[in-house]
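for the recovery benchmark. tokens below, seq after
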């Protein structure tokens, strides 16, 4: 046995609030790695429509979620469509209402986009965390419940608060560097399954040998 299928939208029998997102998400601008799940008593299928805010197709920004991420209920991603122009005397988006206000439409070169939002592999996003546009969250990071992530998160960092700040690193620098080379999440699932005790038990020497 090598675990559940990553294409199963409901991998926990009798517990439908947990779903693998890859088979549930249809938007081509949302990319999800294998085994990443969302946990919501109201249904994980709501993720695409309820947890991404201001994700307009004409903006073209993407949400990229790595493999083996755990996403708690109420985690939200604010996308670039929420941004307003701040260089003028008013931040009000007159142009979107039309009726003669189209002349205030800013040129495309001035649109305030911070790029794709990228969540690495093996990331845990806690209950009702909020991630702002263009943020990069490194592999192995943990975002505490209700944190507001306004800046990039280093790999294997634990962040919390508003704005979220690094509380501590999960491991020492040498261990983190080695884990980022090993990248166990990219192994074939058969190999991951054979080495679960080392992965879950933080046995670096065993992971090193398997790598």
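predicted aa per position
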């Amino acid at each position: 046995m090598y675990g559940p299928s990553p294409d199963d939208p409901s991998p926990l029998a009798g517990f439908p609030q947990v779903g693998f997102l890859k088979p549930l998400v249809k938007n081509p601008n949302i990319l999800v790695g294998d085994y990443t799940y969302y946990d919501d008593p109201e249904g994980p299928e709501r993720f695409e429509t309820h947890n991404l805010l201001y994700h307009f197709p004409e903006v073209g920004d993407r949400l990229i979620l790595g493999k083996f991420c755990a996403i708690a209920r109420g985690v939200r991603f604010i996308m670039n469509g929420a941004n307003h122009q701040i260089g003028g005397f008013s931040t009000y988006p007159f142009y979107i209402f039309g009726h003669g206000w189209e002349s205030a439409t800013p040129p495309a070169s001035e649109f305030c986009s911070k790029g794709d939002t990228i969540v690495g592999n093996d990331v845990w996003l806690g209950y009702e965390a909020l991630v702002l546009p263009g943020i990069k969250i490194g592999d192995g990071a943990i975002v505490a419940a209700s944190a507001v992530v306004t800046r990039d998160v280093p790999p294997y960092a634990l962040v919390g608060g508003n704005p979220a700040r690094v509380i501590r690193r999960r491991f020492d620098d040498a261990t983190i560097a080695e884990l980022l080379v090993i990248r166990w999440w990219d192994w074939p699932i058969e190999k991951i399954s054979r080495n679960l005790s080392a992965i879950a038990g933080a046995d670096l020497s065993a992971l090193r040998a398997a790598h």
